[in-house]
């Protein structure tokens, strides 16, 4: 419950920050505090990495517990062979192998959990590039104008002459 509350708080905080960024057309940063060089480059990039590391660490811990509990869940349903209950050990394998094995044995929760850990660990290094691009206005205007116009224009501006 604490993890869910934390994630909801992070999501709400990000939405508030995004709304504030849209209102002021990006974050205003003086030239002396440039995000591209010097000490402030690390001030802007390291909090994103630290936050991603904490979230992925908590999820990896949760994933390990899901992997440990799956044999007992199958055992509780009864009629499970030993290879699918007591002898099943997902915690000894790499997340790629676990995702494949769990999907093959129809343990969907274990497969999705391992896939989320793998995705998080893969994308964690990209968290350092998130802050400067938002501060300089690189990501938000691209999504706001170019992507939205290319996707929404054909939907809302249809010809009425057919």
Relevant terms:
mainly alpha, 68% helix, 0% strand
Q: What would your notes on this structure say?
A:
Keywords: Membrane, Signal, Transmembrane, Transmembrane helix. The protein has 162 residues and is an all-alpha fold. Helix 2 (39-77) packs antiparallel against helix 4 and helix 3 packs antiparallel against helix 4 (108-123). Helices cover 68% and strands 0% of the residues. It has six helices and no strands. It has a domain at 50-126.
Percent of residues in helices comes to 55-70%
Give me the secondary-structure category.
Answer: mainly alpha
Number of helices: 6
Mean pLDDT reading: 75
Q: How many beta-strand runs?
A: 0
Our measurement of the CA-to-CA distance between the termini, rounded to an integer number of angstroms, reads: 54 Å
* Helix-strand pattern: HHHHHH
Q: Cα-atom Rg, whole angstroms? A: 22 Å
Net shape: elongated
Strand-residue proportion? under 5%
Poorly predicted sequence stretches spanning 5 or more consecutive residues = 132-162
Question: How would you characterize the largest beta sheet?
Answer: none
Question: Any chance you could write out the topology, listing elements then pairs?
Answer:
Layout: H1 2-23, H2 39-77, H3 95-104, H4 108-123, H5 130-135, H6 140-156
Q: What's the gist of this structure?
A:
By secondary structure, this protein is mostly helical. It is built from six helices and no strands.
């Amino acid at each position: 419950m604490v993890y869910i509350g934390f994630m909801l708080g992070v999501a709400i905080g990000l939405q508030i920050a995004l709304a504030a960024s849209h209102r002021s057309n990006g974050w205003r940063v003086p030239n002396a505090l440039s995000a591209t060089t010097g000490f402030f480059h690390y001030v802007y990039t390291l909090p994103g990495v630290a936050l991603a590391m904490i979230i992925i660490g908590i999820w990896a811990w949760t994933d390990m517990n899901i992997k440990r509990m799956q044999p007992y869940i199958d055992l509780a349903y009864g009629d499970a062979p030993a290879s699918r209950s007591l002898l099943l050990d997902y915690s000894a394998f790499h997340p790629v192998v676990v995702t494949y094995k769990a999907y093959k044995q129809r343990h969907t929760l274990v497969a999705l959990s391992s896939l989320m850990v793998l995705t998080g660990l893969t994308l964690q290094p990209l968290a350092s590039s998130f802050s400067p691009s938002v501060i300089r206005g690189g990501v938000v205007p691209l999504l706001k104008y170019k992507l939205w116009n290319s996707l929404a224009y054909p939907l809302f501006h249809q010809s009425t002459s057919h």
